[in-house]
Amino acid sequence: MRKLVLPLMISLVILCGCADSGEESFMQFMQQVSAANEIGFDALVRAEYSDKTAEFKLGYTQDENGAVVEIKEPELIAGIKARVSKDGTQLEYDGAVLDIGTFGESELSPMSALPLLAKTMREGHIDIVWTEDDMLVARIIPSDDFTVTLWLSSELEPLNAEITYREKSVVFIEISDWKVS
C-alpha cells in the first residue's frame, strides 16, 4: 500500500502544477489585441452615477490613426462621434458637445469607457484570471484608481466588462460584433 501512495501523490502534484488557470489563454488574447492593426466592436454601455443611470449603444473602431466612438442609440443623438487622439487623453466631438458627466475626478464617462477598455486589453496589468461557467474572466488594472473585469468566451472573444473606479462599479459593458485584424 505504501508503495502505491508515493506515485499517486507525485502524480497529483504534477497534475496540480499543470493546471491552467486561464492566464496563458488570457495572455494570448492580450497579445492578439496588442498586435492588431484594427479593433472594432459594438457595446451596450450602462453608466451608474449616484443620481442617475445613462445607457448607450456605442460602436468602437481603432486603427493606427487613433479611435472613434460612435453613438448608435439613443436615436436622438445617434451618429455623434468622438475621436480619440493617439495618446488617448482628448475627446473631440464632431460638431456637438454631449455632457453627461464623469465619475468624480476620474474623467471617465460612457464615451471614454470604451477607449479605456481597449487600452486595458492591450496594456493593463493582470491581477487575477479565473474561469466562470464556460468563460475566462480576468481582473485587469489599467491605473491606480481603476479596475476592469473582462469576461471572454471560450473562443477568446470579449463578452462583458465592468469598470470599477475607486472600488465602486460604475460602468457595465456588453460587447458584440468583436473584430480584430
SSE series: HHEEEEEHEEEEE
Mean pLDDT across every amino acid position: 82
Largest sheet: 10 strands, antiparallel
Question: How many beta strands in the DSSP annotation?
Answer: 10
Strand fraction band? Answer: 35-45%
Helix segment tally: 3
Alpha carbon gyration radius = 20 Å
Form type: globular
Helix content: 10-25%
Q: Return the structural class.
A: alpha+beta
Strand order of the main beta sheet, please? 5-4-3-2-1-10-9-8-7-6
Low-confidence stretches: 4-18
- Kindly report how far apart the N and C termini lie: 57 Å
What this model shows, in words?
With 181 residues, this protein is α+β, with helices and mostly antiparallel strands. It contains 3 helices and 10 strands, in the order ααβββββαβββββ. It has helices at 2-18, 23-35, 110-123; strands at residues 39-48, 53-63, 66-73, 81-84, 91-93, 125-132, 135-143, 146-152, 158-165, 168-180. The chain has a 10-stranded antiparallel beta sheet with strand order 5-4-3-2-1-10-9-8-7-6, covered by helices on one side. Helix 2 packs across helix 3. The longest helix is centred in the N-terminal third of the chain and has 17 residues, at 2-18. 26% of the residues are buried. Residues 4-18 have low confidence and may be disordered.
